[in-house]
Amino acid sequence: MPSITDVYASLKAILDVAGLSLPIRWRGDDTDSTGADALPDTPTPFLFCNLETDPGDIAGFGGGRGANLYRNPGYLYVYVFVPRGDGSEPLALEHGESVAVLYRSYRDSVVSVFAASVVAGGAGGTLAPPGLNSAVNAYSYALVEVLFHYDQVG
After folding, report:
1. Which residues lie closer than 8 Å to 87 by C-beta, 6 or more apart?
2. DSSP 8-state code for residue 10
3. Residue 112 needs a FRET pair 20 to 30 A away by CA distance; which of 11, 52, 54, 128 works?
4. Based on the number of CB atoms within 10 Å of its own CB, is 62 exposed (0-12), middle (13-18) or buried (19 or more)?
């Protein structure tokens, strides 16, 4: 049965192999996918990813103690940041859609994705994503919400 680190690796691999043109930052990482350790002085588009889980619920009773099925829900939040200005919101939404399509109906032996939606965000200065230590006042954003679950036996 998969662990949360397996889930993280599976969801991360989808973006890693997608060949997207935007640098990708993950909460807790010191650098982005290009090796940059800070946001550039001149704003450029990038993705910021945050994985969150909720407590699991029992989904099935098995052969006694240690053989019950637990279903663990979670969300992958992918913030799509683009420089503020005319046309920035449609651009953020367009990049968001290119991310969401990668996750829709995705399933492997580790994780099952049930929804991937793009939500219009607005001005980046109105939020502070958990784990992003740089100001995003010069950006507009869209949010990709990926709903998934993974099962464990215990």
Report:
1. none
2. H
3. 128
4. exposed
Q: What is the CATH number of the domain that holds 118?
A: 3.30.2000.10
Residue 136 lies in a domain: no
132 domain residue, yes or no: no
Q: Tell me which amino acid residue 5 is.
A: T
Residue 78, pLDDT > 90, answer yes
Band the pLDDT of 133: cuts 50, 70, 90: low
What's phi and psi for 123, nearest 5 deg?
A: -75, 130
C-alpha atoms less than 13 angstroms from C-alpha of 115 in its C-beta half-sphere: 9
pLDDT, average across residues 20-39: 91
Domain that holds residue 30: 4-34+42-125+144-153
**Is 135 inside a domain boundary?**
no
Q: What is the pTM of this model?
A: 0.90
Q: How far apart are CA 119 and CA 97, in angstroms?
A: 10
